[in-house]
Design goal:
- The chain is mostly helical and 505 residues long.
- It has helices spanning 9-27, 29-53, 63-91, 98-103, 108-121, 124-140, 148-175, 177-204, 209-220, 233-238, 242-274, 277-280, 295-310, 312-338, 341-368, 373-378, 383-412, 414-437, 455-477, 482-504.
Length: 505
């Protein structure tokens, strides 16, 4: 970085890139290798055949294509906004080197520009790994204009980053720093799950595919989506038309630059205020101190639940999984009332699987993500006692969430409710036990990088959750293979337990 002036935009950007690349390679080498293999496979089996099939075919812009591309861009913007809003909110609190940068003679807007650019481009990797294998081969086989899709993805990311920063700063100004930290994370989770909820709405409200297809065709033939309409500008930009592409990309860059300049001074002030949040959490002088009651087990369980509620980042991730879980419960209840046997069985299996994943996340938080392990080690309790308390705290929120839907289900179909409830219980306990056996100690802020923990443990949770899902499906169908599925599930649990104990020896 000697060839650029110290403190300049390029100097700060090069420093940010270096830290990001260094952290990625150190933290997740296996993930990088898997991603590279995925890109090569997708290119070979999807991108190249697509390029060969379309090498002599020209795309004609129609209303249906305009509507389809616009919908895809809305989906991508929503997903990117969810990521950028979460990162923008945390940028005010997880300061790192922000104190040093903001106290240096570097303009605040320049610091925000570099940090905002990092926030905007951080989620691009996964989308580029999906898009490039499908766009680059056709570009090499006679459709170079398709490369504009990559530029439009970057433009969408910049626009999402600008909107995420504006939302985070707006929440900070309206509701204050303490509430922003929680509400910002929950709002990001809700935005990320919105597409899933919209996609599930047709099942929840019994909308037939033919009705949706007719509505899509009607919209595609409406004047609003004609190739010369304003709504066709993004689609024309994606297909590489120069003027629409420059307009869309220029608008995204301009929006990002304006938001950075407008929010620069505000960002410096808000980040300084956010640093004082721990002081806001101090107990008021007139508030009586809480006394321990109910024994060590209840105290430990209460402590873990309180820590979960107090951490907005963790709470948002759990909230996101709950949003995925609740529509499945609603759909299952509807299918029971309409006596759709096949859908009841698959819905029960999906409910059991999602519940096991949620239980695994909560168990990892309470068991492995311990910020004060020395305190527990010095406490007059055994390690197994502490682990039982942590496991109880991990499973209580899930059971409290599902107890009412299971009881309602039992009113309409007791046998199905028994299969679903038993499957959820056993799968959740199994996920918690696996997190005990394959404990991967770390701090709570590492929850977002949970995949970098125990690879065997993560695979075990996935396999055992799938096995319990299949078993519950078989139980609902009263299939002959249900006992065999239960036996295989039990053998999987035994194998993972023995593998862990042998590893310790």
């Amino acid at each position: 970085m000697n060839f650029v002036p110290a403190g300049s935009f390029l100097w700060l950007l090069a420093h940010e890139i270096r830290l990001s690349v260094r952290g990625s390679f150190r933290a997740n080498r296996i993930g990088i290798a898997i991603t590279a293999a995925f890109i090569l496979t997708l290119t070979a089996f999807a991108g190249v055949p697509l390029a060969i099939g379309l090498r002599h075919v020209g795309l004609r812009l129609t209303g249906g294509l305009v509507l389809g591309i616009d919908l895809v861009m809305v989906v991508l913007f929503t997903l990117l906004l969810s990521q950028t809003l979460s990162s923008a909110t945390l940028a005010l609190y997880e300061r790192g080197d922000l104190d040093l940068l903001l106290s240096s003679p570097i303009p605040a807007y320049r610091v925000l520009a570099v940090r905002g650019l990092a926030i905007a481009t951080q989620p691009l990797s996964i989308f580029l790994s999906l898009l490039c294998p499908l766009v680059v081969p056709p570009a090499l086989f006679g459709h170079p204009a398709w490369l504009a899709a990559i530029g439009m993805l970057v433009a969408l990311s910049l626009a999402a980053g600008a909107v995420g920063l504006l939302l985070a700063m707006g929440l900070f100004a309206i509701i204050g720093p303490r509430r922003t930290r929680t509400l910002g994370q929950l709002l990001a989770a809700l935005i990320g799950a919105a597409l899933f909820l919209v996609g599930q709405s047709r099942y929840m409200f019994s909308l037939k595919t033919q009705v949706l297809l007719s509505a899509f065709i009607g919209l595609a033939h409406s004047p609003a989506f004609r190739p010369e309409s304003a709504l066709a500008v993004p689609a024309r930009a994606v297909l590489g038309e120069p003027v629409p592409f420059l307009f869309c990309a220029g608008f995204a860059v301009l929006l990002f630059v304006i938001s950075v300049h407008v929010l620069g001074a505000r960002f410096s002030k808000d980040a300084s205020i956010a640093a004082g949040i721990p002081a806001e959490r101090r107990r008021k002088a007139d508030t009586p101190a809480r006394r321990f009651h109910g024994g060590a087990m209840q105290s430990l369980v209460r402590k873990e639940l309180l820590l979960l509620v107090r951490d907005p980042a963790l709470l948002s991730q759990v909230f996101l999984r709950v949003l995925y879980l609740l529509p499945l419960v609603f759909i299952l209840l509807r299918n029971v009332r309409t006596h759709a046997e096949g859908q009841i069985a698959t819905g029960t299996g999906a409910l059991v699987f999602i519940a096991s994943q949620l239980a695994a996340s909560l168990a990892w938080i309470t068991i492995s993500a311990e910020d004060a392990p020395d305190l527990l080690t010095a406490a007059p309790i055994t390690k197994s006692f502490a682990q039982r308390a942590k496991l109880t705290a991990a499973l209580l929120p899930l059971f409290a969430l599902l107890i009412l839907p299971i009881l309602i289900l039992a009113w309409f179909a007791p046998a199905i409710a028994l299969a679903a409830g038993t499957g959820v219980l056993l799968a959740s306990v199994a996920a918690g036990l696996i997190n005990l056996w394959y404990e991967s100690p770390g701090q709570r802020r590492q929850f977002r990088r949970r995949g970098s923990g125990s690879l065997v443990g993560n695979m075990a949770v996935l396999l055992v959750g799938s096995a319990w899902s299949v078993t519950a499906t078989g139980a609902v169908l009263a299939a002959w293979w249900a006992p065999a599925a239960l036996l295989v599930t039990g053998l999987l649990m035994l194998g993972f337990y023995r593998g862990r104990t042998m590893g310790r020896a």
